């Protein structure tokens, strides 16, 4: 952290140095206008070169500072009052959109599309209209023969045929039909034009009269049912429906400061674009209802995968740590039981979502609390990309997590990374955002423990990953801090535990990668006392022991000395801790 705080200062100071240099250069340009002595030319050139080099060095330091700053991710504040003004404005707009949606029930799933029968009901209506047109044409062809007598007749027949109950009679339609027939009849008659026009006028008058009467009747009859407003006050008395209640991870969307923390996660996932964030949270709420997340929490999905994905300890900043051990799928039976068919893959997905939901509900969503997780992905003996079923299930799970669980990762640490995965990551790296890449950390098998210890204390790291934490009853717990030291190549390293009173001293240690010699002895403070061998010198290999535990009881003052002899050409990481316990004879 000291390095990270110093580099921004250098980056901030660099521009100031450049300004000073520019001012000096301007002064020298003015001086250059005057004649310069031959002896001074060499010194001026040297000074300019020195200044140019200083500027270049300052620029290089500034670039390095920027790289280190972007390489590490720092979590933003969840206190709304500390947000920049632009983010505050976006946050308030976001809350307003959510409130409006809650008032209108906007977080419900959209209704299903109408059935196919309703869509198919329209074409027959159009076909009937087409069939009616030829019938009208036939009457028009017959009309010229006896225009005077037959003109009104078809109209009356149509009225009789098209007059169902009064409420449904479309009176204006009959008039329109008559007018169209009249126009066509006038065009069809050539010889007796005047007579036919007179006859048609008479027929129009005869037909129009009842047509005018019927609208009046319908109007008068329709006026009577319009008394319905008497019932309207009863409908208005019904109180409006209360706003929809929507919760995510057991917290209502607009309840208190915890709700603000959740809303900020969705806003940050969409770069504070309010509409995009609203679409995301709406889709998440709908997905949770459709997937049945709340009922999923109560399901019993077995414990076959408890060694594949598990929570263990906290990092140095207090984030819970989740471990994913993909090497467990080397077990063919476990692999087949997990990814053998669609049903098993679906069960795996439900188990993974259930595990994540239970882990999230243990987080602290207060503005100053810990609401993110550190994820450690162990790729040792991983089946890799060749397993199609594993790849499909993993991609499906990742898509769901990305879409519905935003900003829950504080750090993604990949350990025991093979060379092919590093090459694959370089290929996809250009497509990742800087924010995403700043959360990723990769470590080869030889560096995995060292990289992991940067973020998680050794006493919190499981023993299989180089730490001291292990299951069962032990002398030490995860709360007992451990010390880290480096053993140089081809050197003997000693550790001393002073003893000032009668006690039982217990200690434990491990060397990452071992392949060293270990010994322990007690040296009394009295000059005439003898050294006591606690543990004889022995070589410990990589597969011999993970953690060495030892103890010594004494009533005399003195010290315990541990000796670790590293005869290899590589430096080693030593982790140890101790404590004194009182005892009686």
TrEMBL record:
Electron transport in keyword set: no
UniProt domain CRAL-TRIO: residue ranges: 298-473
Designated name of the protein: Patellin-3
SMART domains attached to this UniProt entry: CRAL_TRIO_N, SEC14
Listed InterPro entries: CRAL-TRIO_dom, CRAL-TRIO_dom_sf, CRAL/TRIO_N_dom, CRAL/TRIO_N_dom_sf, GOLD_dom, PATL, PATL1-6_C_GOLD
Source superkingdom: Eukaryota
Subcellular location: Cytoplasm; Membrane
GOLD domain mapped to chain residues: 479-580
Ranges of biased composition (kind: Basic and acidic residues): 116-132, 227-237
Entry similarity comment: Belongs to the patellin family.
Signal peptide limits: none
Region called Disordered, residue ranges: 101-174, 208-246
Keywords attached to this entry: Cell cycle, Cell division, Cytoplasm, Lipid-binding, Membrane, Transport
């Amino acid at each position: 952290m000291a390095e990270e705080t110093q580099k921004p200062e250098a980056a901030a100071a660099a521009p100031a140095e450049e300004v000073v240099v520019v001012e000096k250069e301007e002064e020298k340009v003015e001086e250059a206008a005057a004649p310069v002595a031959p002896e001074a030319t060499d010194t001026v050139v040297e000074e300019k070169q020195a200044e140019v080099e200083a500027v270049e060095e300052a620029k290089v330091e500034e670039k390095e500072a920027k790289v280190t700053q972007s390489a590490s991710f720092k979590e933003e504040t969840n206190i709304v009052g500390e947000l920049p003004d632009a983010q505050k404005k976006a946050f308030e707009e976001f809350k307003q959109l959510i409130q409006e949606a809650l008032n209108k029930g906007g977080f419900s799933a959209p209704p299903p599309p109408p059935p196919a029968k309703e869509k198919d009901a329209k074409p027959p209506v159009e076909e009937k209209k087409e069939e009616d047109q030829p019938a009208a044409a036939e009457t028009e062809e017959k009309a010229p023969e006896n225009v005077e007598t037959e003109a009104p007749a078809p109209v009356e027949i149509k009225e009789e045929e098209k007059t169902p109950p009064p409420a449904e009679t479309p009176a204006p339609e009959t008039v329109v039909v008559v007018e169209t027939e009249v126009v066509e009849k006038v065009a069809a008659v050539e010889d007796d034009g005047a007579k036919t026009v007179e006859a048609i006028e008479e027929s129009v008058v005869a037909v129009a009269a009842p047509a005018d009467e019927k609208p009046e009747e319908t109007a008068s009859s329709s006026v009577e049912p319009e008394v319905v407003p008497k019932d309207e006050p009863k409908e208005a008395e019904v109180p409006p429906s209360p706003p929809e209640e929507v919760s995510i991870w057991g917290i209502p969307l607009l309840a208190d400061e915890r709700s603000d923390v959740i809303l900020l996660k969705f806003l940050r996932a969409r770069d504070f674009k309010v509409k995009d964030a609203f679409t995301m949270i709406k889709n998440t709420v709908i997905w949770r209802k459709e997937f049945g997340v709340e009922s999923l929490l109560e399901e019993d999905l077995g414990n076959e995968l408890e060694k594949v994905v598990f929570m263990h300890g906290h990092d140095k900043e207090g984030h819970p740590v989740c471990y994913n051990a993909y090497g467990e799928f080397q077990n063919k039976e476990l692999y087949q039981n997990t990814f053998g068919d669609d049903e098993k893959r679906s069960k795996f997905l439900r188990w993974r979502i259930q595990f994540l939901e239970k882990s999230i509900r243990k987080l602290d969503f207060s503005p100053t609390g810990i609401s993110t997780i550190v994820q450690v992905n162990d790729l040792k003996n991983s089946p890799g990309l060749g397993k199609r079923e594993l790849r499909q299930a993993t991609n499906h799970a990742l898509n769901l997590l990305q879409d519905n669980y935003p900003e829950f990762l504080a750090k993604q640490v990949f350990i025991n990374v093979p060379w092919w995965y590093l090459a694959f990551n370089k290929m996809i790296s250009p497509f990742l955002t800087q924010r995403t890449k700043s959360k990723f950390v990769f470590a080869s098998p030889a560096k995995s423990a060292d990289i992991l210890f940067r973020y998680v204390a050794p006493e919190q790291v499981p023993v299989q990953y180089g730490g001291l934490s292990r299951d069962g009853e032990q002398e030490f717990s995860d709360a007992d801090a451990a010390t880290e030291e480096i053993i140089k190549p081809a050197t003997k390293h000693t550790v001393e535990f002073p003893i000032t009173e009668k006690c039982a001293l217990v200690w434990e240690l491990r060397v990452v990668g071992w392949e060293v010699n270990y010994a322990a002895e007690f040296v009394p403070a009295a000059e005439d006392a003898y050294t006591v061998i606690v543990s004889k010198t022995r070589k410990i290999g990589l597969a011999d022991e993970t953690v060495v535990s030892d103890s010594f009881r004494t009533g005399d003052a003195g010290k315990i000395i541990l000796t670790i002899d590293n005869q290899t050409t590589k430096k080693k990481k030593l982790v140890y801790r101790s404590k004194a316990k009182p005892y009686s004879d």
